[in-house]
Structure formats: structure tokens, C-alpha cells
Amino acid sequence: MPTVKRITSRDNPSFKEWNKLAGSTKQRRKVGETLLDGAHLVQAYLATGKNPLRLLVNEAAAQDKEISGLIAKMPQVPLTCLDDALFVELTELKTPSGLLALIALPQAQIAPSHSGFCVLLEDIQDPGNLGSILRSAAAAGCDAAFVSAGCADVWSPKVLRAAMGGHFALSIHEHADLFNVAAVFEGTIFATTLHAATSLYQCNLTGKIAFAFGNEGGGLSPELSNLCRQPIIIPMPGKVESLNVSAAAAVCLFEAARQRLDIPITQSRK
How far apart (Å, rounded) are the C-alpha atoms in residues 52 and 201? Predict the structure, then answer.
């Protein structure tokens, strides 16, 4: 167990910095750091082969076997114990997890021209939707996500929780110029629309592909839609007009995953 530093005052300079980091997109971008909340996200980060910059715990964490086990795996990482009242200020969870990890924001590794299966996300403003899409993209085997400046903050607590570790299985490009990404991407870019003549299930999704998803209310901008080479429709035999963007993304991504795993279906593909 590493040496534990204890903080009991809100006036502590380090606590003030972490508090700003927890609540401010601007601060996260300024210092290039964020906080991971809970053992699951910390484990997902450790799986990348990196260690956090610091671990923050509350008093109850010492009694939690999962948390104490994780801490024991990182004896070289500085450990700080916060009073319960201070820890609560750094988390949005009603029941605090007991563990926070300070990490440096990972740098994107895969260029648009080198991606084989990715998502382009334009102005996805709901953190839950953005996180869910990143989670589905990671689970389906995407290698990269290109996220426009109009999207929610990728590294905010709500997006991190919704993605459940998906961030660390993707090369994430924030503030991406999606028009440039679309221009240099070497495969086919698919975009869902209710007016398309081609069904998702008629498409060959086994090569270099990307899916573009747009704003919850307005969808993709006309400019980006025009750059997408294949408009598609998700067949909906039920009595609804459309799907939530995160649900639509999951349907598309896992049809691609199914095809890429070579699981046969009876319908023909174009």
C-alpha cells in the first residue's frame, strides 16, 4: 500500500484544482487531465498499460475489497484520502464509488486515412448518447471516433460513465474537422436517413467503412450528408418514425460487427 496523504480542508490547493477539473470542460482541456470515477473505469484504463497520475479515495474505500485490490496493483501511484464531504464534491454519483483516478487525456493515435472502421459524430449534445455511442463503437470493434466541436465534452464524467471504458478501446479525435475526415477517409461512409432507398441489411459492411451520426434533433448537417457516399435506412416495421441516435448507432455498428465476423443471414447484400 503506498503512503497515504490526507486532505481535510476545502482550502487545500490540490483539492481546489481537482474540484475545478471535475466540473469544468475548460479546465480539463487546459491541463489535459480528467477524473475517472469508480473501479470499473480505473480497471479499463489500467488495461491500456498506463497508470493514473494519482488515486483519490474516501475513508470507506479501505473496506472495499475491489478498490483496495486495485490500489495494491499500483503501489507507485500517489494515493490521497479525502474526507467524505470533500470526496462527494468531486463526484456526480448519489452513492460515491469511493475511488477516483486522475489521468492524462490519451492522445488520438489513428489518422482518418488509416482507420478501417470508425464513427463520425456531429453535434451529439447529450452526454448519455455520446457515451453510449462510444461504448457501442468500442464493443463492435471500431478503431477510431471522430467527434465534432459541437458534441458534448468527451471526457466529462457523464460521458465517461455512459461509455463504461469504451474511451480506452478507441482512438478518439476531439474537435475533429469532419469534412476533412470524410474527404480523406479511404472507405465508404454510411449515413442513416428515413429517405434512403437502400436498407442497412443490404449493404456490404466488411471493408473499410465509417458511420456518420448527427445531432439528436437535426441529424447530420446537409454539408456532411453530401460527403457520405452511401445513405441507408434502418428498416422499422413497428409504428415509430425514428430511433434515438444511440440506438440507431448500436443497430448499425453491430450489423457491421456481425458481417465482419462472417455470421451468415438469409438476406442478400449489395
Answer: 42
